[in-house]
């Protein structure tokens, strides 16, 4: 065999029944103790079970569920994508399944399965596989930076042993149903699987998310080895304090300021004097709302989705702009997602979890009234997020939006900009008019005092996340009529480009 990585895993390791029975009680009690300890420390644990056909992956998943307290374990078996899953970016199905902090998620099949099989069957090129693996590595490191513990187990069998097991299963009428036509076909392509698997492991093996290669020929050795790796990983995290924040802090990214020498920001170059007359506004509203109505129905027929993001200063007119957008879309086709402070359930997951779960079904429109950009705006300015958290969020945001664009989802992002003087005028108006008084809060006045800090954060946000696949539109908002028509026109153009 030429592949040295897998030669190492073919040493004929075995464990006797006596050794197994003697070691098992301590292993099981250790796993339970570590599971309960990590639950109190709010650490999310992801166990990935991958490897060769017939290597006992399913048996080990059963065993792990026996050894752990099932009340704290979620097991997910990923096979072919459903229609609902295919209508969204690939990672949507995995984000929904991620365990909350304090829980263990067992992933039987994972984000590795599809690209590996696609490359073995020559459905994708080596460069495409590498692109998929780079995205996987980024995804895993993002979760690890957030404190998740990722344990990756690869069960290996030699070709001879795999053939023997398939033959044994086929011969027994009670197990014959477990042998799929794909299993026999995969055996014929064993060499390709080995070479591709080595590439997968090599490109996604990292200090934060290492692979563990396990010889799976002997059942007792396989179960003890895998169980001990999981136990040692849990104990190491407990020793490290449970959060795994040391690595994240050490890897803090550097943010280059996109600002001129005079200290001007992107917002300083927005022409806020732009206005529409009453007639221009009525004509523009009629034209672009009519276009948007037609475009959203056409997009629905072609299963093209839209994600519209609305950010802006307090009192900038985001709500009224959204109302003009939704007035043009059939209520069956859109959903508004208002983003406020995260709930307890949302705080128990990675920051992006709550946004992935709201992505629209094929052909529909999701309108985010505030969004994932809170991490680099309010959470940065108010120090709800540590510096290393909001700085790495730029890369995380770009990766997320690139996945949306790759799935042919139109992404439109609006920052509604107004002057500081105009904001003050609108604040006072809200105080004076009774039916608008609910819109003004003490928090609005507190935020206003941090105008310069928010302005700096907005500048960095636009500079780092305005991309060719998801550009920012900075909307002059001092005149609400101009802002509304400008937003409608931009949304129409974004949909027209995809259609």
In percent, how much strand structure appears in the residues?
Answer: 5-15%
The backbone outline, from C-alpha atoms, is elongated
Distance between the termini: 51 Å
Number of DSSP helical runs: 22
CATH architecture of the largest domain: 3-Layer(aba) Sandwich
Poorly predicted runs are 245-251, 257-261
Quote the average pLDDT. 92
Would you kindly provide a brief summary of this structure?
This protein is of the alpha/beta class and 499 residues long.
Helix-strand blueprint:
Layout: H1 4-7, H2 17-40, E1 45-51, H3 57-67, E2 73-77, H4 83-86, H5 92-97, E3 104-108, H6 113-120, H7 126-145, E4 149-156, H8 159-171, H9 181-188, H10 190-204, E5 211-215, H11 219-239, H12 245-250, H13 278-301, E6 306-312, H14 318-326, E7 334-338, H15 344-347, H16 353-356, E8 365-369, H17 378-381, H18 387-406, E9 410-417, H19 420-432, H20 442-449, H21 451-465, E10 472-476, H22 480-498
Parallel strand pairs: 1-3, 1-4, 2-3, 4-5, 6-8, 6-9, 7-8, 9-10
Helix pairs in contact: 2-11, 6-7, 6-10, 13-22, 14-22
Report on the architecture of this protein.
With 499 residues, the chain is α/β, with parallel strands linked by helices. It contains 22 helices and ten strands. The protein has two domains: 4-249, 3-Layer(aba) Sandwich (Rossmann fold), CATH 3.40.50; 266-498, P-loop containing nucleotide triphosphate hydrolases (Rossmann fold, 3-Layer(aba) Sandwich), CATH 3.40.50.300. The strands form two sheets. Strands 2-3-1-4-5 form a five-stranded parallel sheet, sandwiched between helices. It is elongated and about 85 Å long.
